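Data card: per-record layout.
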Amino acid sequence: MRPDATASASAPRGASLRAVLLALLAVGLLSWITPYNDYDLQNTYIAGNLFPQGAMVVLLALVLAVNPILRRVAPRQVFRPAELGLIWGIIAIASGIPAAGFLRYLLTAQTAVGYYATPENRWATTIVPHLKPWMVPVGSEASTLFYSGSPSGLVPWAAWRSTLLMWFALAAQIFAVVACLTVILRRQWVERERFSFPLVQLPMALATSPSAGSSLPDFLRHRLVWAGAAIPILIHGLNGIHLYFPGVPQVDLHYDIAKNLPSARPWNAVGSFPLHIFFATIGFAYLLAQEIAFSMWFFRFFEVAQRVVLTQTNLTGSGADLGRFANHQAYGAVLALGVMVAMLARPHLRDVWQRVRHGAGGLDDSAEAMRYRTACWGLALSCALILATFLQWGLTLGAALVVLVVGLLKYVAASWGAANAGLMMVQQQFRQLDLLASAFGSRNLTPSTVVNGALIENVFWYDLRETLMPSLLNAAKLSEETGLQQRQTFRWGFVAIALATGVATVAWLQLSYDRGGTQLAPGTYLYHAQRVWNEAMARLDPGQPPSRLNLLGTGLGAALFLGLMALRLRFVGWPLHPIGLVTMTSWTSNQFGVSFFVGWALKAVIVKTGGLRLYARLRPFFLGVVLGDVIIAVIMTVVGFVWGQGYFVTPN
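The structure for this 652-residue chain is written out next.
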């Protein structure tokens, strides 16, 4: 049942002013503290993935504390399910902006190209001359003080003004395309293909109206929920105490199996093979179809086994070749996914186009976040503006088309993975320009394309752990379930994006110029800040020759994806789902593979022994595991603020 069956059965509700104001206040506060929490304290990330902690904190506070008090003193003022859904949705939509969704890979890379340039790496002579003037802040002092710290602690806003305006304009164009694409695909995935949206299940349960005489939703009064929640709370609580008091024992949730493998060929091709336990992922895996959960860990082992076989048979020359080959397989899988999405959605897209052409009759779009005519023309206009911007920023037309089209396919893949497979993050190791480099050689790309394209890819497509499109889909799904107008969620969500962008930019720059980037999280300020320029430099000098092996990998990945989809459609109960191919080389698979295995195995045993009835009875337990992960993350974040040392519950 939906959280508010009565509301859902009638016309969708509009947004209440108090819910909007509370959500925007929370967005502003979370955006302000994110840089300090994530990159100074190095605490559990405020967002960190597509199941943002910040949104859950606010929702839990309202459900566990505010609403019970209001039910006693002012029953008419209790936050309704539609308001709770709106608040969660607005915060979730804006959650990625202060971090990986936009600013994390922009501000640090912009300044790193000047600060870390040395005679040895030759960035100043090979990279900087090809950067457009607005790509980075004006003057070397802005970059130097960003990393060393300003003696006055003041931000040189004059140096940042033009570059921020240009990047914000490009971001607005890309976010507009994402919104339009979300509206066009939403009904296909929700109503026709009936995706399960696992990441929305817990917020949906929390937003449910309580039974008569109760102050809490029925979900929170279920004993199995708290039995499940106790597991991550107790284990992470013990490990958190160990962090601050090393004499206290801990439960090790992270282990690298490669340490016990022989160092000789071919086992040296395995590299790092960590076994991580993330409780929320186990809980989400239990909610998934068995073939999806199975594939999420199977293809992680498949990719490692492939490396061992290719090394043993001398089919590739080096570890770098192995990595690029596997990344191109994922590239091919994403291209095939785009073909599959379009093929499955043909009837829906035909109906959408009929609505666009005739403007009335046919497919009803009154409940969508925007009319289909607006979405389609907005998509076309925004894509044209983005292409024009890419050309102005130094990319050739062919490269601009590849970056945009494949970039949108990466967004679709991330959204497909989140809505269909409950992936808390969907990362892909390939870059859009990799295919052109493999086909023609990177030195045949113009230097301006390589340098400026590298920064664009880095900001918007390198790390999709907090990307916008899946959050828009999740917010739209929760809006529908709580009886709220999707249009209101999107409208206020984009107001929240603008707010988060302004507040977080100020917070980022003030933190960096006050503390100095060299004193902050090295993964962000050192490794990732330099990685983009090291990759660009490798493409320019010595350059990457054309690679038939990589092109073979792209074709093989596409063929495997489409073949697996055909087998799923042909044979009932086919055990492999192609979504594992999309993420098999990514950090997502590296971090979550074992947790997916645990969730899959537990569900398999439960269904085998007790059938679907036992599976349904234990569902609250596994949602409780997810809830417990959120609760202990909140507790440890607060402790980290007080103690001055962070603790990671979710991946860092």
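Known properties of this structure: The longest strand covers residues 254-256. The two ends are 36 Å apart (CA to CA).

See the next section for split statistics.
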